[in-house]
Write a sequence for this structure.
């Protein structure tokens, strides 16, 4: 897939809560094809301590409007500056980068997201639906404030929720939600993105039950397109770049 | 019309802008963004005799105006390069140079011998300055006798252009530069990364798996510029300057300090098109300042 560098215009920067924003970005002309699981490298301007671009998952695409949404969790100076962007600001992106989630062989899938890891699952849900697969989401967070973009997910399919403090949905971790057990005989694919500890538990469960599982990693990166070799993850074939061989990996390929 | 050509001791560059090894892959990674044949040269990823896995993740830490890396020369070995990668890049119309590294003198020699057979590779950059490997690498480039030993040994088997990449992690870089010149280097490139480290105060742990790594980016530019200038006082062979070059003005400064050509490294990660912008910017600088030839900038710093 051809890569581009373009200045996008911020159409809106919607604050979801104290740590999450959704940036809606307009392409200068026509948005090229992009796939769910892919990411962009964002140039953050005016950060005294930010130097490199920030790799951010593609949260959603609207091909008719030529717009792209990025879900940003403010965890450091770069993402905080992204949270301060205003309508009309320009944002330089290198995109689209990385591989993508694959379509399932059969029609029943579970998408498991934790925290900011829900970002690529919205785009994937839309893609699955367009390809005749009914997505089913399981979203987890520490508290109800961490369950974000819920209404958007509900438009695409059934949504199940867990919070560690029980403030929304089932109390506990995603793997403890009853839907996991009830759906296990039905599903043939799990897609997961979120904290590594969560993805490892989900991948292990999938492996134990003969379910194919794709995980999306978020290793720290410099270039984002295979030149610097800093974002590697350990696989059965040795070190592989998360940016070009990933970010999506079959969980059995990783040395977890 | 500004003449951008540079004669690097026999190696003809269409302009002084090259890419630094380890920041530009094999060139292919950048072809979606621009025609890399517009550059004076490309230094491909550090190549060793045998396959190297590199260091464990995490290998990178962002630091103010720069970054630390500890990749550790991950590559599939020179034979893989010759068989699989060389056929894909050999027809690119610029100087594709191979950065050669090793753990022993024999490794360097054997790797250089294999690269010597590749018709469309007009030169090598002998890396005696990688700070991220346990054996060899920087150890060779931090003392005159060991630097000389590697350069002399490779010189015997390698007939084309031999650039030697110097480490800044030394007491006196001029001594090393002079020693490798006398040992047969055709040019010297400097600086490789500066040894550094970063700690996360919250977790009280190092940010790199190797604890220490190589610092690059604008943070190192004044050090690099000083070293280029110092080396220019003592060697006759051309100097290829690098260290934190982000734009054409930075490139001009390195040339004024005595560099005949420059390499752009870390900036490629921030702006994948930065190198062509520097080519255009150098031309513009020459036009604006009355230089017919970019080579007239070399060592043209005015000291009143």
């Amino acid at each position: 897939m051809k890569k581009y560098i373009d200045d996008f215009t911020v159409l809106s920067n919607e604050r979801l809560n104290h740590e999450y924003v959704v940036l809606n970005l307009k392409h200068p002309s026509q948005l090229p094809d992009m796939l769910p699981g892919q990411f962009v490298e964002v140039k953050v301007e005016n950060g005294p301590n930010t130097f490199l671009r920030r790799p951010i998952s593609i949260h959603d695409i609207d091909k008719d409007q030529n717009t792209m949404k990025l879900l940003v969790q403010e965890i450091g100076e770069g993402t905080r500056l992204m949270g301060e962007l205003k309508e009309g600001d320009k944002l330089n992106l290198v995109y689209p980068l990385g591989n993508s989630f694959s379509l399932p062989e059969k029609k029943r899938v579970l998408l498991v997201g934790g925290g900011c890891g829900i970002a690529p699952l919205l785009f994937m849900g839309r893609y699955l639906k367009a390809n005749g697969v009914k997505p089913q989401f399981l979203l987890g967070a520490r508290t109800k404030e961490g369950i974000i973009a819920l209404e958007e997910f509900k438009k695409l399919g059934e949504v199940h929720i867990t919070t560690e403090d029980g403030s929304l949905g089932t109390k506990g971790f995603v793997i403890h939600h009853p839907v996991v057990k009830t759906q296990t005989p039905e599903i043939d694919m799990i897609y997961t993105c979120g904290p590594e500890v969560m993805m490892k538990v989900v991948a292990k469960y999938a492996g134990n039950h003969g379910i194919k599982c794709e995980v999306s990693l978020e290793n720290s990166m410099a270039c984002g397109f295979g030149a610097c070799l800093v974002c590697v993850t350990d696989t059965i074939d040795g070190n592989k770049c998360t940016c070009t061989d990933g970010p999506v990996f079959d969980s059995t390929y990783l040395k977890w | 019309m500004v003449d951008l050509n540079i004669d690097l001791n026999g190696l003809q560059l269409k302009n002084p802008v090259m890419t630094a090894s380890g920041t530009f892959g094999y060139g292919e990674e950048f072809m979606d963004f621009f025609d890399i044949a517009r550059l004076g040269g490309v230094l491909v990823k550090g190549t060793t005799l045998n396959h190297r896995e590199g260091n464990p993740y995490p290998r990178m830490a962002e630091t103010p105006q720069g970054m630390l890396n500890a990749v550790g020369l991950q590559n599939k070995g020179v034979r893989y390069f010759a068989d699989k990668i060389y056929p894909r890049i050999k027809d690119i119309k610029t100087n594709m140079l191979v950065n050669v590294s090793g753990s022993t003198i024999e490794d360097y020699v054997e790797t250089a011998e294999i690269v010597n057979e590749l018709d469309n590779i007009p030169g090598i950059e002998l890396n005696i300055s990688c700070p991220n490997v346990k054996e060899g690498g920087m150890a060779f480039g931090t003392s005159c006798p060991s630097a000389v030993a590697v350069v002399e040994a490779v010189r015997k088997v390698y007939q084309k252009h031999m650039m030697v990449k110097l480490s800044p992690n030394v007491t006196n870089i001029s001594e090393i530069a002079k020693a490798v010149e006398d040992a047969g280097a055709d040019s010297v490139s400097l600086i490789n990364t500066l040894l550094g480290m970063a700690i996360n105060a919250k977790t009280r742990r190092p940010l790199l798996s190797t604890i220490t790594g190589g610092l690059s980016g604008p943070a190192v530019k004044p050090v690099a510029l000083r070293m280029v200038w110092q080396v220019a006082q003592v060697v006759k062979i051309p100097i290829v300057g690098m260290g934190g070059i982000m734009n054409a003005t930075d490139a001009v400064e390195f040339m004024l300090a005595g560099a005949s050509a420059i390499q752009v490294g870390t900036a490629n990660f921030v702006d994948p098109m930065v190198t062509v912008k520097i080519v255009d910017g150098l031309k513009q600088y020459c036009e604006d300042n009355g230089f017919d030839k970019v080579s007239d900038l070399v060592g043209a710093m005015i000291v009143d």
Observations:
- The two ends of chain A are 29 Å apart (CA to CA).
- Residues 36 and 127 of chain A are 7 Å apart (CA to CA).
- The first strand of chain A starts at residue 4 and ends at 15.
